[in-house]
Amino acid sequence: MSLLEKRRPGTGRIQQITPASAGWEFVGFEAHLLNKGDRITLESGDRELCLVLVSGLASIKTRNADFPGLGGRMSPFERTPPWSVYVPHHDRVEVVADSELELAVCSAPGGGNLPARLIAPSDVGVERRGKGRNQRLVHNILPDSEPAHSLLVVEVYTDEGATSSWPSHKHDTAVEGQETQLEETYYHRFDPPQGFALQRVYTDDRSLDACMAPYNHDVVMVPRGYHPVASIAGYDSYYLNVMAGPQRKWLFRWEEDHAWINSDDYPRK
User: Isomerase as a keyword (predicted)?
Assistant: First the structure.
């Protein structure tokens, strides 16, 4: 099965990844392109959702909460944190597009008694990672330090010609205090939009070793293994990550050969 899911043409739901379609257990992802005035209704069922306004304006209502007039970022490449809404399991949510809207629906198994809540831009942790040609800007939308049952959501910006999700790291094996098992999706966007990136997904024994060229609105699925991304000269990269697994903790292991990129030996003089 291919790990690259191409965007569907037109507007409406342009991406739909389910555990069944991906051949895994936890992560689901949808992307919607809506015109002003369009509305969609979602039932969370036994899953929790994080609705991310990738760009545009929206009003969002659940059974017990109302969040009108959200948004402000009209392109993800404004590099400001997004507006998002957490929706618990066994809830119903209605989204009305107050402008052209790009909406990501991130999902994973739900549980507990968490209420629906707004995740405002001021609630999003912003950090810069890396050095040299391995720098990126990170927006921690729903990290493991914030309440949810199993869902983790983050967005990452990488400048043209640089790398991210690098040095190669993996989170596919539960090792207490060292690594957690997490499935992951990458929803890719590019500026200018005709750009692409190169992403490799591979394991130590190379039983999985795939290299892909995701274009705008494509999704790369990472069931296991390392998963670095290289942006192409001339095209800035954005991706939205969704992760989930048996334990809601982001612990990973660097690939030993490339861990030196984190040391003072890089950049090389």
Answer: yes
